[in-house]
Amino acid sequence: MKVILRKDVDTLGKIGDVITVKDGYARNYLIPRSIAYLATDSNVKALEEEKKQQSRRLEKEKKSSETLAGDLEKTSVTIKMKVGEDDKLFGSVTSQMIADALKEKGLNLDKRQIELEDTLKSLGIFDVNVKLPGGVAGKVKVWIVRE
């Protein structure tokens, strides 16, 4: 049976690929889970329209991510922490703390978007990478100071 993939499947192919699979696999697994369509002319046209809409959505998402990345470049966040001897922190600065500090500045980010390469366990200024939708990356300056 010929089907058109609606989602990327590692073992089968990418979105929009027309593939041949066994009838039972298509009827019992792929089609009920909306992973694939039957390969008819109307479904091919519907998939093309779906691809166009998705590309428009991705473009819009990328533009908004680029503006957010520009805003992040201009923003710096100050986090106050308790400090012990030799300017070592009690604990470390987490991505959740950075996300909360950014939320106070009006920038809503999920903690999973903030990528900490190493744990931040000392006072200073750090550039922290932020992964945004659409493959856009940004950086935010984090100042860690004494409480």
CATH H level, superfamily name of the largest domain: Ribosomal protein L9, C-terminal domain
Q: What percent of residues are in strands?
A: 25-35%
Class computed from helices, strands and strand pairing: alpha+beta
List the secondary-structure elements in sequence, H or E: EEHEHEEHEEEE
> How many structural units, i.e. domains?
2
Widest beta sheet: strand line-up: 4-9-8-6
Poorly predicted runs: none
Portion in helices? 25-40%
CATH topology of the largest domain: Ribosomal Protein L9, domain 2
- In round numbers, the mean pLDDT is 91
Rg, Cα atoms, Å: 23 Å
CATH class of the largest domain equals Alpha Beta
Instruction: Provide a count of the helices.
Output: 3
Q: For the terminal residues, how far apart are their CA atoms?
A: 67 Å
For the secondary structure, the number of strands is 9
**What is the level-2 CATH architecture name of the largest domain?**
Roll
Q: What would you call the shape?
A: elongated
How would you characterize the largest beta sheet? 4 strands, mixed
Task: Write a structural description.
This protein has 147 residues and is an alpha+beta fold. The chain folds into two domains: 59 residues, Ribosomal Protein L9, domain 1 (3-Layer(aba) Sandwich), CATH 3.40.5.10; 82 residues, Ribosomal Protein L9, domain 2 (Roll). Helices cover 35% and strands 32% of the residues. It is built from three helices and nine strands. A hairpin with a 3-residue loop joins strand 8 and strand 9. 14% of the residues are buried.
